[in-house]
């Protein structure tokens, strides 16, 4: 009959003794279990891990239930042993750690803990790895970003990303599902962010598919690229002008643009994001409290490399690079740009009469199924890239001019 029990079960303040029965794992619909303020002892049943809906577990092992041990590693209880510990100091440390874990992190870790068991690694980022996982309660597919906290800056990236995502919500921003901040079974900090899963991966994979991906990925046509450019611009407009406190992304690039099943673009990875100082005048609104090199090589504004302050104009510069990249089909770090030539200079030299010489060749080969209307198609395919290059080139020229004037 235990399996039919749902919602919550409270047995606190009952002076209960002995150990928790293994049948507690049959409480598959339980959301909260409170056994605090008792005198329980023995091993925590591992079957508790089967309670996939359990969100809160109240043990209070410091002043009561201080003889509980073992069980689920995430609880960090001392190992069960018939021998008394040599020193009470280590045991005391564990007693202090456990209530902190339960009260703060374990509330969300139990649900994440089940999902993490079935994750498949998808990619590696600047501060950790991204996995594809499934939420056990409803089968929702998610992307789980697990941070490598041994890497310098990873913890700060986690905090910054949480702050930025907490303050923003837009259809062209990657939406967060939840966060996990806990301690693993080795006593190390564990931090991860759970996002909605983007079925079509990132823009980088579509612009530059690897050999093993070429069979399933078709090259983006002009309208798809134009729509992606509009979606990213919409996200930046929201971050810069629609948030209560404007946000600078600081790392806009193709691998941070994710595509859902409908090829709608979502800007993600806010690990380097910065909030602007609250100010009413435009001059101070463009500055933040953070100074230094922010972003990825090829997309970083020149003034950042010279110690300039982070501003929304930096995001606009990165967007201009991304816009040129969308239609040229070359990374700003391509080998052809190693000897003084940049992607911006390439586009500037091609204007106005030689744009078709540098356009992504796949755009020249595409057909829309209406071959009878050749003249209309030829005009369409030539005019749109030229317009995009003008916009991207003007963005770049304006940013470079401002950089040197300042």
TrEMBL record:
One of its GO terms (cellular component) is plasma membrane. SUPFAM superfamilies: L domain-like, Protein kinase-like (PK-like). It is found in: Cell membrane. The keyword Chloroplast does not apply. It comes from the Eukaryota. Keywords: ATP-binding, Cell membrane, Glycoprotein, Kinase, Leucine-rich repeat, Membrane, Nucleotide-binding, Phosphoprotein, Receptor, Repeat, Serine/threonine-protein kinase, Signal, Transferase, Transmembrane, Transmembrane helix. It catalyses: L-seryl-[protein] + ATP = O-phospho-L-seryl-[protein] + ADP + H(+); L-threonyl-[protein] + ATP = O-phospho-L-threonyl-[protein] + ADP + H(+). Residues 116-405 form the Protein kinase domain. Gene3D superfamilies: Phosphorylase Kinase, domain 1, Ribonuclease Inhibitor, Transferase(Phosphotransferase) domain 1. It is an enzyme of class 2 (transferase). Its EC number is 2.7.11.1. GO terms for molecular function: ATP binding; protein serine/threonine kinase activity. Pfam families: LRR_1, PK_Tyr_Ser-Thr. It is a single-pass membrane protein. InterPro entries: Kinase-like_dom_sf, Leu-rich_rpt, LRR_dom_sf, Plant_receptor-like_S/T_kinase, Prot_kinase_dom, Ser-Thr/Tyr_kinase_cat_dom, Ser/Thr_kinase_AS. This is non-specific serine/threonine protein kinase.
């Amino acid at each position: 009959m235990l399996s039919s029990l749902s919602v919550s079960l409270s047995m606190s303040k009952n002076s209960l003794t002995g150990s928790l029965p293994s049948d507690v794992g049959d409480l598959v619909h339980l959301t909260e279990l409170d056994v605090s303020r008792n005198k329980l002892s023995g091993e925590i049943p591992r079957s508790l891990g089967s309670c996939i809906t359990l969100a809160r577990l109240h043990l209070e092992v410091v002043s009561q239930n201080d003889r509980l041990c073992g069980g689920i590693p995430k609880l960090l209880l001392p190992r069960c042993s018939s021998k008394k510990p040599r020193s009470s100091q280590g045991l005391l440390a564990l007693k202090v750690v456990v209530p902190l874990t339960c009260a703060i992190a374990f509330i969300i870790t139990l649900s994440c803990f089940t999902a993490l068991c079935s994750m498949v690694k998808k990619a590696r980022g600047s501060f950790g790895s991204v996995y594809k996982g499934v939420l056990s309660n409803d089968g929702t597919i998610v992307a789980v970003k697990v941070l490598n906290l041994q890497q310098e800056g990873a913890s700060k990236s986690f905090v910054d990303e949480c702050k930025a995502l907490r303050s923003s919500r837009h259809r062209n921003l990657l939406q967060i599902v939840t966060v996990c901040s806990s301690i693993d079974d080795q006593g190390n900090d564990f931090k991860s962010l759970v996002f909605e899963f983007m079925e079509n991966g990132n823009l980088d994979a579509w612009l530059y598919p690897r050999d093993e991906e070429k069979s399933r990925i078709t090259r983006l046509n002009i309208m798809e690229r134009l729509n992606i450019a509009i979606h990213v611009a919409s996200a930046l407009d929201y971050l810069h002008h629609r948030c209560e406190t404007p946000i600078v992304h600081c790392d806009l690039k193709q691998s941070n643009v994710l595509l859902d099943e409908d090829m709608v673009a979502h800007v993600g990875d806010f690990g380097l994001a910065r909030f602007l100082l609250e100010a009413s005048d435009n001059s101070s609104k463009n500055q933040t409290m953070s100074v230094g090199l922010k972003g990825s090589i090829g997309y970083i504004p020149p003034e950042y490399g010279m110690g300039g302050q982070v501003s929304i104009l930096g995001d606009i510069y990165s967007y201009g690079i991304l816009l040129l990249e969308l239609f040229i089909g070359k990374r700003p770090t391509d080998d052809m740009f190693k000897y003084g030539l940049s992607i911006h200079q390439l586009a500037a030299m091609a204007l106005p009469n030689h744009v078709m010489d540098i356009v992504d060749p796949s755009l020249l080969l595409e057909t829309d199924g209406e071959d009878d209307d050749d003249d209309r198609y030829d005009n369409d395919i030539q005019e749109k890239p030229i317009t995009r290059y003008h916009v991207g080139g003007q963005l770049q020229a304006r940013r470079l001019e401002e950089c040197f004037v300042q």
